[in-house]
Write a structure and sequence with these properties.
Elements lengths: L8 H11 L40 E7 L9 E8 L2 E8 L5 E4 L6 E8 L3 E2 L3 E5 L9 E5 L3
Parallel strand pairs: 1-8
Antiparallel strand pairs: 1-4, 2-3, 2-5, 5-7, 6-8
Bound molecules: calcium ion (3 copies).
One calcium ion (CA) binds next to loops.
Length: 146
Amino acid sequence: MQVEISSDPYEATETVDEACDKDFDGVTNVEDNCPNTSNSGQEDADTDGIGDVCDPDNTVYGYIKDIEGAAIEDVTVEIVRVNCGDVISVVVSTNALGYYSSGALESGYTYFVSPRKLLYSFAFRPVTIPQTEIRSYDFTASISEE
Ligand SMILES: [Ca+2]
Ligand SMILES: [Ca+2]
Ligand SMILES: [Ca+2]
């Protein structure tokens, strides 16, 4: 008995790849804006079609949680650059998952990522754009002392 082999060896493989979910985030490879990195929310701050978690284009993102690990919504996150007395600031807020992001920051500067919300205190963190490696800037809030 003869087994028939497809004339295009890539055809079958591509079909399987598109339908599968390489990074197990619930989004199939063909739909996934970061097929190799888990990002079930598909967040894309600068809407260039590349998800924040794999976007080399000067995106800062992260999650904000309390000490018990619960997401904190509506945290104002200010991303500030100070240069010769000029202050440039971008303000974003966390969503229900505690997620924030800001895209297309100007290269060559250090920014301070400063979350703010009443009742909580946060440490700020510097990030130099472009980041040497794409990673999230996560914060854990502590209850501020009165
Ligand atoms: Ca996926
Ligand atoms: Ca993904
Ligand atoms: Ca993007």
